[in-house]
Specification:
mainly alpha; cell membrane; transmembrane; Haem_export_protD_CcmD; transport; membrane
């Protein structure tokens, strides 16, 4: 096994792992966005969301 082969395989493995992690994070983000959309469609809101009624903002 030559040094060139070892170095090339190291870069290939590192690139593959990096691409897999990027894909995983991207797919997971899409899944979380879908879940948030479903929750908001069901009427569930975040606690940090500002109330839309003027009476609630006075409290």
């Amino acid at each position: 096994m030559s040094h060139t082969f070892y170095i090339a395989m190291s870069y290939a493995v590192a690139s593959l792992v990096t691409l897999c992690l990027i894909g995983w994070v991207w797919l997971d983000g899409r899944a979380r966005q879908r879940e948030l959309a479903e929750l908001e469609a069901a009427g569930i809101r975040r606690r940090s969301a500002q109330p839309k009624t003027p009476e609630a903002s006075k409290a």
